């Protein structure tokens, strides 16, 4: 086994140019090499693909990768080929003759790795091939798509389990996902039929991401976005919007301001989506405005900000989308702009959703209830005055629940998880917790940050620039906290008096002593709580939402939502109960929040001449990418170019020592980059 792991490390170094596995990767690779199933839960950007790509090279036979990302498969395969791995893909974009050819070559053992869409597994010709092929392993990417509980359910994923079960020789199966909830993880194990799976959960912290939340009325959002982007004109970023119409509006607006923005949503033709995605990846349109249809599988390493123009439906969706920033470990910003209307839109989406295929009405209602809870957690994130990073980490089971924390110093645990017959205790019990949204700055407290984190760039110079902890707008005090404890207590008393039989408006009307027919008709004007608050109506409404988001109250769904007590209602009666509400300062020209400027990878460490070299290397990469018709990152990531510009390697050995340079890439591109570096004179010290 040790020998196999050594081989795996050698492959990581020679093909990918990386010195070491990240902790989570090591556990997954080692489990697969020993023939064991794995459930790997790692956040976006943690490096899931290496987990199956390295074993694909080390193990006998071909690795089959099931992925929902048909439009990206060609790029994924180009990327592995650039690393010297024999990769192929089989999907509907190939003509029937080409498909037959790929299958024929696969049967001859021509590939280490093959990507297929889940639909392919139901094709009899493919099933026939798989029965006789020698499969090293099966990797199910984005494995949460198998579950109706999650955000991205794909019915075609349901056929994977059966496909695996029918194989005459069952290879180890790796399910990879960034999802958090326990229900989804259990579904993955059950529906894919994982057996005695090693469960690996890496630390979810992304230290190089800085989080910011700002409440902005719809009319203010564009101005805030303008100010934010103006500070980052040279950077690449993504702006997520909840609706297609908003994507259009925001994208048009940015273009009118001279920003090279492009758009992506499900209402565009496949050709336009493909074209726009490519323009973004190739940096000809560095700003992407999109709905959540965009982004899965996009490995663009130099995205330095992700703005959410609306509140997403869950913390998971948020973290997955925001996590597309700073993949290479450079400082990056994640800004969420939200308003009350976003909550209403979120609720509307949940109630309207009709894609609960194959579920009974009762089951569909359970799914909806789960979505509502997820939305409440997201609302809680927007409202919290505590550390945003801590909030997210608690949601993912880190920092708030000791039983779910990996052991001190390690970012990974491997624990048996479910599967056929294995019902024992496991790491995930309680891990997929509802967030504890009590205020706190746990993530800033090093004693609580035991989940460990991965650093994208393990080299000295880069880890130095990315290790500096950048936290969040709350920790940086970018809001005014208003104490609303008195209002909260009044609301709790009122809800008790109304016995959960009325909605938010009535609760607020009673407290403010409104003189309405409705209140008289129900006799509510005689209650002792009637007219006991002088607070503004809007503030009381907000405090009701905050109490609900924190679990002190619960708001029912449907046409006439009723306000009742939530699971934490008793805590609101305790003497130390306190509640604060956030108020975001107005947009000032040039940014309200004044976040530290996001820098391109390594740029902060580069002198003027090195920055020039970095730009020259980027231009060279673009040229080579155009010649080879691949996205630039497939050749080298920005972080690798930054390392080149800083280290100025003069020989092939020196170049090979840099992160992200493997033997194949050295052979293909080494000469061109070394020549370019040699052609730019080194910076001389200027007084
Ligand atoms: P995920 O699929 O988990 O979102 P990816 O597989 O796309 O993440 O990897 C994210 C980035 O991390 C990629 O740029 C990849 O090359 C880089 N990476 C992966 N493994 C390592 C490693 N061991 N050391 C350094 N960088 C790595």
TrEMBL record:
Family: Belongs to the helicase family. RecQ subfamily.
Key word Hydrolase present: yes
CDD domains associated with the record: DEXHc_RecQ, SF2_C_RecQ
Highest taxon in the source lineage: Bacteria
GO biological process: DNA recombination; DNA repair; DNA replication
Domain HRDC: 607-687
Protein name: ATP-dependent DNA helicase RecQ
Cofactor(s) needed: Zn(2+); Mg(2+)
Catalytic activity annotation: Couples ATP hydrolysis with the unwinding of duplex DNA by translocating in the 3'-5' direction
Secretion signal, residue range per the UniProt entry: none
All residue ranges annotated as the Helicase ATP-binding domain in the record: 29-198
Membrane-crossing segments per the record: none
NCBIfam families in UniProt: recQ_fam
Cited Pfam families: DEAD, Helicase_C, HRDC, RecQ_Zn_bind, RQC
One Gene Ontology term, aspect cellular component: bacterial nucleoid
Protein keywords: ATP-binding, DNA damage, DNA repair, DNA-binding, Helicase, Hydrolase, Isomerase, Metal-binding, Nucleotide-binding
InterPro entries from the UniProt entry: DEAD/DEAH_box_helicase_dom, DNA_helicase_ATP-dep_RecQ, Helicase_ATP-bd, Helicase_C-like, HRDC-like_sf, HRDC_dom, HRDC_dom_sf, P-loop_NTPase
GO molecular function: 3'-5' DNA helicase activity; ATP binding; DNA binding; four-way junction helicase activity; hydrolase activity; metal ion binding
Limits of the Helicase C-terminal domain: 221-374
EC number(s) stated in the UniProt entry for this protein: 5.6.2.4
């Amino acid at each position: 086994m040790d020998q196999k792991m050594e081989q795996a490390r050698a492959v990581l170094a020679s093909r990918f140019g990386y010195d070491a596995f990240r902790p989570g990767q090591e556990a997954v690779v080692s489990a697969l090499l020993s023939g064991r199933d794995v459930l790997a839960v790692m956040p976006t950007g943690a490096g899931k693909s290496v987990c199956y790509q390295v074993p694909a090279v080390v193990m006998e036979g071909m690795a089959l990768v099931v992925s929902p990302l048909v439009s990206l498969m060609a790029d994924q395969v180009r990327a592995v080929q650039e690393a010297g791995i024999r990769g192929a893909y089989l999907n509907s974009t190939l003509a029937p003759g080409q498909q037959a050819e790929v299958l024929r070559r696969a049967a001859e053992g021509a590939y280490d790795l093959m990507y297929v869409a889940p639909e392919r597994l139901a094709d009899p010709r493919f099933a026939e091939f798989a029965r006789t092929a020698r499969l090293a392993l099966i990797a199910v990417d984005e494995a949460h798509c198998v579950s109706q509980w999650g955000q991205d359910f794909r019915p075609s994923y349901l056929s994977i389990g059966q496909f695996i079960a029918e194989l005459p020789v069952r290879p180890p199966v790796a399910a990879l996902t960034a999802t958090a909830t326990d229900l989804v993880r259990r579904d993955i194990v059950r529906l894919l039929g994982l057996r005695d799976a090693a469960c690996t959960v890496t630390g979810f912290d992304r230290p190089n991401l800085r989080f910011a939340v700002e409440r902005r009325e719809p009319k203010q959002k564009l101005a805030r976005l303008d100010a934010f982007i103006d500070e980052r004109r040279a950077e690449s970023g993504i702006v997520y919007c909840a609706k297609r119409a908003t994507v259009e509006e925001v994208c048009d607006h940015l273009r009118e301001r001279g920003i090279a923005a492009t758009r992506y949503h499900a209402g565009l033709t496949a050709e336009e989506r493909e074209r726009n995605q490519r323009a973004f990846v190739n940096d000809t349109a560095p700003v992407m405005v999109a709905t959540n249809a965009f982004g899965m599988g996009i490995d663009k390493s130099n995205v330095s900000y992700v703005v959410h123009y609306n509140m997403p439906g869950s913390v998971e969706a948020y973290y997955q989308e925001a996590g597309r920033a700073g993949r290479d470990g450079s400082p990056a910003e994640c800004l969420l702009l939200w308003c009350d209307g976003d909550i209403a839109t979120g609720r509307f989406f949940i109630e309207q959703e009709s894609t609960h295929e194959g579920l009974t009405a009762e089951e569909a209602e359970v799914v909806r209830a789960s979505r509502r809870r997820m939305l409440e957690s997201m609302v809680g994130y927007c409202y919290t005055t505590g550390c945003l990073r801590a909030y997210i980490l608690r949601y993912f089971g880190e920092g708030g629940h000791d039983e779910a924390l990996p052991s001190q110093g390690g970012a990974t645990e491997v624990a048996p998880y479910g599967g056929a017959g294995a019902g024992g205790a496991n790491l995930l019990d309680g891990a997929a917790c509802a967030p504890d949204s009590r205020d706190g700055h746990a993530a800033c407290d090093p004693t609580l940050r035991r989940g460990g984190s991965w650093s994208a760039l393990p080299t000295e110079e880069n880890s130095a620039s990315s290790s500096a902890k950048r936290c969040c707008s709350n920790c940086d005090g970018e809001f005014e906290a208003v104490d609303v404890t008195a209002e909260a207590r009044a609301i709790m008393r009122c809800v008790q008096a109304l016995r959960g039989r009325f909605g938010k408006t009535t609760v607020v009307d009673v407290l403010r002593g409104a003189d309405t027919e409705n209140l008289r008709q129900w006799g509510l004007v005689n209650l002792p709580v009637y007219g006991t608050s002088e607070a503004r109506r809007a503030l009381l409404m907000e405090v009701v939402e905050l109490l609900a988001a924190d679990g002190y109250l619960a708001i029912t769904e449907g046409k006439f939502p009723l306000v009742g007590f939530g699971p934490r209602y008793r805590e609101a009666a305790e003497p130390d109960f306190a509640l604060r509400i956030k108020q975001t300062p107005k947009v000032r020209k040039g940014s309200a929040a004044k976040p530290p400027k996001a820098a391109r990878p390594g740029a902060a460490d580069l002198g003027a001449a090195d920055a020039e070299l970095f730009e020259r290397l980027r231009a060279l990469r673009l040229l080579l990418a155009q010649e080879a018709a691949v996205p630039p990152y497939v050749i080298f990531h920005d972080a690798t170019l930054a390392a080149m510009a800083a280290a100025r390697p003069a020989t092939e050995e020196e170049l090979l020592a840099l992160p992200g340079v493997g033997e194949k890439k050295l052979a293909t591109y080494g000469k061109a980059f070394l020549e370019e570096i040699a052609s730019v004179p080194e910076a001389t010290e200027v007084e």
